[in-house]
Amino acid sequence: MSDTDLLSLLVALSVLLLSVHALGTLAERLRQPRMTGELGGGLILGPTVLGALAPQAHGALFPDTGPVATAFGAIEHLGMLMLMFLAGAEVRRLLPRENRRVTAWIVVLGLAVPFGVGLAALQVVDLGGLAGPAADPVALSLVVASAIAVTSIPVISRIMLDLGILGTSFGGVVLASAVAEDVVLYVVIAVALGLAHAHGDGLTGLPGLLGIDSVPAMSAYYVLTTVALFVCMLTVVPRLAAAALHRAGKRSGGRAHTPGAAGVTGVLLVVVCAAGASLLGVQPMFGAFLAGVLAARIEEASGAAIAGELRAFALAFFIPLYFGSIGLGLDLGRDLLLGFTVLFIALACAVKLASVYAGARLGGEAPGGALNLAFAMNARGGPGIALAWLAYEAGIVNAQLFTTLIVLAVVTSVMAGAWLRRVLARGRPLRETSRTAGP
């Protein structure tokens, strides 16, 4: 990269960072998810606004090709890995015993019904015209169904934190349900991305060495490998890490951790786990997610704030740039199919709200509390945006469906926050367990 290219990159990063942080702060003051403002910051600098008003300035700042575009692509992928790492670290939020029944019903119905409806809808409505270059109908079906079913852990956590309800029983049910749902969906998404990748220029890693070339064999490989990797990272690896930490503690004589060591450990976990997943043919984002799960387990065993040391910098640099870059890639004037997007959002919201409400009621929740849980679980936020971006990058969806999925994630996140604030402003309880509720 020449000095001129480096200067162009630094200017572009400075402009984008200023924009996403300014609009992110504004969004927070308006009591909206910060992610919404960060997306808006990129949207203003992208083809939707700046590109339409001053195309030469937009092209000079954010070229489509060349070293600057390549560097931005690398930053996007790093932002994705950091986002998934922090999402994985949230898995440490365990379910209190008294909430297990209602959470189990919410997970079963709130995940299975939307996912099933998404798959069924694609049998009735042909979305082949919205498929990407991969042209894989199985991967497309899995992505659309996951987009309907997914719940955002980071966004709903931040909303509840701002409202002072994160530590309540309501917050516990929402987070536990979201974690359980998203763990399953991340496995599904990893399989979908693996199938799409198989249609690319060639298989890499272990699938390439094994010479897997048939769709049934690829499907079986990605399912088994992804599930095995997840189980291994939850059971075997934490034990090995705990044993290594114990031996290291003995050698150090119980001295305090070296300053910055936790952050270094976190970075190594992200890079090594993402690379390991890629070698197995699984998407690196799933490896980063599992790195977050592992980091949380190590934190519990050692007390080192691994995720905490990475979180501050990731939320200040990588993740805002990631959301801003997604906004840069959106062209609402060209790619927004308004009628289709409205119908898709209506279907996704109706199915998710109804299924979570039914699950909460079967779990013993009163009608008002069940409705509040349904609106909270309807927020798709960061995971929904990440799913859309990954599917677009993998060629599973085209620009129009990508735009629809982004709008779905933003609209449902805003809806969730607005609903919960309205309930609290009226002085109503968010959760009121009925007499039929069990342990």
TrEMBL record:
Q: Looking at the keywords, is Transmembrane present?
A: yes
Instruction: Extract the Gene3D superfamilies matched here.
Output: 1.20.1530.20
One Pfam assignment: Na_H_Exchanger
Q: Which InterPro entries match?
A: Cation/H_exchanger_TM (IPR006153), CPA2_transporter (IPR050794), Na+/solute_symporter_sf (IPR038770)
Q: Which residues cross the membrane?
A: 68-90, 102-125, 137-161, 173-199, 219-241, 261-280, 313-330, 336-358, 398-420
**Keyword Membrane attributed:** yes
**Ranges for domain Cation/H+ exchanger transmembrane:** 18-425
Report the principal subcellular site: membrane
Annotated compartments = Membrane
* Domain of life of the native organism: Bacteria
Membrane topology is: Multi-pass membrane protein
Q: Report the PANTHER family cross-referenced here.
A: CATION/H + ANTIPORTER, K(+)_H(+) ANTIPORTER 1
Protein's name in the database: Cation:proton antiporter
Q: What taxonomic lineage is listed for the species of origin?
A: Bacteria, Bacillati, Actinomycetota, Actinomycetes, Streptosporangiales
